[in-house]
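ingest -> validate -> predict -> emit
validate: passed (alphabet ok, no gaps, 297 aa)
predict: started
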Amino acid sequence: MKAINYKKLNNNDPVTLTIGNFDGVHKGHQKLVELNVSFKDSKNVVMTFDPHPVSVFTKNAFYTLSNNQQKTEILKSLGIDEVWIIEFNKTFSQLSVEAFIDFLKKNHVIRMVVGEDFRFGYQGKGRIDDLKKYFEVVVLSDQIVDQMRISSSHVRNLLIEGNIAHANELLSRPYAIEGIVIHGDKVGRTIGFPTANIDYENYLLPKNGIYYGKIHIEEKIYDGLINIGNNPTINYQVKKRFEVYILDFNETIYGKRVKIELLKYLRPEAKFNSKEELIQQMEKDKEQALLLRKANL
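emit:
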């Protein structure tokens, strides 16, 4: 789903609008959406951005928790009517407070639903009080869990730490990465564990290690082991790999788009002294995955 230039946005219906990056669409975002869709006198809309503003300001790659399609599907499943994905570029980032408000008025925004730290316009100079001059404004207080504000940054840190359980709790669903199955070096099949290599695109990869999860292929769901890392024992890779060993599966899926849900962190990545040691550990990992499947995790 491609972003559009803000000048080309042309909406003629009354709108209740929420603005943000909505990276990951975590519980805090979900509360904003819940409040937005409670208003029935207008279209319920979320405006978000692509690329992520951080990548524009820093000119560095910024790995995200969700892509545009995933984000849109989640938001619509929560009741949002439309998702406006605005191309975030230098021109848009430099809109003055007045120009930004004119843009909202032009697109028939009647109400804003925002978090208490909401800022807009060039250098974030726009404040909630500026919006109140022109729109009805509904402000949601920060959502706190375990004395921590729920934020995309907090979820990212949890994933980087390998705390997939807590990250999934804050997302209210398993962290999922979607991508195309690509050709790898086919080393896994030589040791009895053929893996599907996934092009993880611009997703944030959690901490290196072995995970248990679910693999969605077309309309079917399988259990499997997910390896994130550099393959330190055999065939070391400088760029991280995202590989999936699918239990009880023997089909060719190159070129197919799959979704992988990460459910449980099993162990850290390790360098073994021999191929035999690696295989022994992988057999143990497989046994653990089979037990988790039986327990219907």
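The domain at 6-148 is CATH 3.40.50.620 (Rossmann fold).
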